[in-house]
Amino acid sequence: NAGVMQNPRHLVRRRGQEARLRCSPMKGHSHVYWYRQLPEEGLKFMVYLQKENIIDESGMPKERFSAEFPKEGPSILRIQQVVRGDSAAYFCASSRQRQGELAETQYFGPGTRLLVL
Amino acid sequence: DAKTTQPNSMESNEEEPVHLPCNHSTISGTDYIHWYRQLPSQGPEYVIHGLTSNVNNRMASLAIAEDRKSSTLILHRATLRDAAVYYCILRDRIQGAQKLVFGQGTRLTINP
Questions:
Q1: Confidence of residue A79 (pLDDT cuts 50, 70, 90)
Q2: Closest approach of chain B CAs to the CA of A114, in angstroms?
Q3: Nearest CA in chain B to A59
Q4: CB contact under 8 A, B45 and A4
């Protein structure tokens, strides 16, 4: 059973370009989460999605950032008009459908390291 | 999510046990205690979680204080591969807060 997959693992963009980060959840997982880790800082939650729905985007910057998790295919985190401050590691996690009252364990991917020149 | 407090860093020797403390004095009755770790240049990895009773799995043990205001992650025999940042996180089991709130964690160094 393959783990959470993210691609690309490394992405270099110039200021003003767009960055698209992809996340394929573990098989059987219908919940996806995106986190960002700025250099020398902790992980910060960005957005939580279920298939075709955004459940919680409280950690997403209001501008330039968007996320989707379509019925078919991977989840996409899209950053438009990137700036140097967007340089960070972006991690995706997935979990199963909630079972009863227990929050399910999140399994993380290896991350995409974005460098904005 | 309730706040947790962990030492910034700890150091231990290979083959010895490691006890990583976490204080969560404002924990509520519906909070589970989760531990994740992040190895260098990798994504976080689930380690263990518990509610009231001590828990054991193949990776570690979790000792939870009787009043639940603190807990300790125990690595019984540390190896160099256990060098990582360890995060203690509280998750509400009822309200269903899905996001993980990471603090600064404890950076564990293992000496050969």
A1: very high
A2: 13
A3: B99
A4: no
